[in-house]
Sugar or nucleoside kinase, ribokinase family
Amino acid sequence: MDKIIGLGNALVDVLATLEDDTLLDEMDLPKGSMQLIDDAKLQQINSKFSQMKTHLATGGSAGNAVLGLACLGAATGFIGKVGNDHYGNFFRENLKKNTIEDKLLISEQLPSGIASTFISQDGERTFGTYLGAASSLKAEDLTLDMFKGYSYLFIEGYLVQDHEMILHAIELAKEAGLQVCLDMASYNIVANDLEFFSLLINKYVDIVFANEEEAKAFTGEEPEDALRIIGKMCSIAIVKVGANGSYIRKGTEEIKVSAIPVEKVVDTTGAGDYFASGFLYGLTCGYSLEKCAKIGSILSGNVIQVIGTSMSKERWDEIKLNINKVLAE
């Protein structure tokens, strides 16, 4: 089976469920967005969190996707940067526990990155992200050896604030013979850096994952038209449309796959990341695009039924049973 390495912001998610959305307005965090925050805003959020029940989990888009792949039994690795602190140790321990190859770098100057995650009553999540050490991952930190032995590189769009680092990572990955997968990350990130996303996808990226809002921010079009535009730029394009499933295009082949039925959405954190996990797992096993997307739907449909992105062994066993049913079809 092909090996997959993730490159992303090594973050620890601190999750809290809101009774209503007034706190989001108070914190000036648009619902459903990912906003980068400074130290002062982090302290403000922490003072609110100290009065609420919070839950800790490893996070970051690429980190989530790699964790999902590892839980399915795929061979994985992760490149990121953490601080020399409690959160950094928590992140590293989680990699070790899930047999993800640890390629973490340490910052002695900055604390580990934290994604303060607000979960609304409808399951929508809003992030106030303090990048900390994660943002200090630079082009010069990366070496060709980090990518050797892998077949795919999974990059999160949240990294685009450092163009030089992303381009260097892709160059090294291509030199090592890897295919490059990009998850667009968030509609506001795409809108703010449209030209660079266009360059990456036209020139370097093989597989693009986007949700409806990100696809629209990139192309100005609704999902099906957006899919065709992105599909002409890369090898495989995926546009996820939440409860309506996903559209996939490769060359002239285009399919739509339904989402799995879910009675109650608890928290949408990681839904897109876990869809990518399932899809890429299927790809590394050589399954059809339809089966890849169905596996992605199984994973994303399950992770939205729990808080955060950590699922119990029992749930993973059930997921694997459902994947086997898809494969038997």
